[in-house]
Structure formats: structure tokens, C-alpha cells
Amino acid sequence: MNGAxxxxxxxxxxxxxxxxxxxxxxxxxxxxxxxxxxxEFRIPVPLKKGLGVAAFYDxxxxxxxxxxxxxxxxxxxxxxxxxxxATPVGPVRxxxxxxxxxxxxxxxxxxxxxxxxxx
Length: 119
Hints:
- It is a single chain.
- By secondary structure, the chain is mostly beta strands.
- The protein has one domain.
- Helices cover 6% and strands 57% of the residues.
- The protein has one helix and seven strands, in the order E-E-E-E-H-E-E-E.
- The chain has one helix spanning 68-74; strands spanning 7-13, 22-28, 33-44, 51-63, 76-87, 90-99, 109-115.
- It has a five-stranded antiparallel sheet, covered by helices on one side.
- The longest helix has 7 residues, at 68-74.
């Protein structure tokens, strides 16, 4: 998703000379400060060597300035479960995460399949 930070609404047009092709979209605004809190609890599964499950929490956001007011208003929380399988090139990770305070118009539950360590 990568859209938890501050966003602004802008007009996007397929053909700038034809306003009927225009629509409003949300784009990242950016910020000067970043707060990230990650935690993962991994449990080996004895069915196969290198197989495991994980429960995780991801939180944070991009802020213009981190303060108590901005922290409460813009902080994003995601919890989830994952499956891990160790390979010679790194772990294969399959994660399902659920954003507890999702952005309107974006599905609050996401599936991620990645290769390598999360952090």
C-alpha cells in the first residue's frame, strides 16, 4: 500500500484539453519525519524444516513534525499473520495484514508475498 503518510487531492487528466477525462486522485505529500514501530513473533512449525508462522504489528507514518497532536491523528496501525519458509536465497514470506485505521477507498486487508527479511 505504501500510502499511510500525508496525502493531497490532485486532478489527473487523460487529455488535459478535454476536462471530461479528468478525475481527482490522492497522492503522497511527503514529510520531514518518519516514525516506524515493527514487531514480529516467529514460531517454527515442526512439519517441515525451515517452515514457520509469524504474527506481526506494524505502525507509524510520515509527518511534517512528530508531536502528540499529529501522532494521534495520523498514526497507522496494521496487524497480521504470515507464513515463512527458509530457502538458500532467503526466506519466502507470505503475509496477510489488516490496517486497523484504513484510508478510505483502499482495502484494509492486503496480501504480500516477498523474498528476504522484513527488517
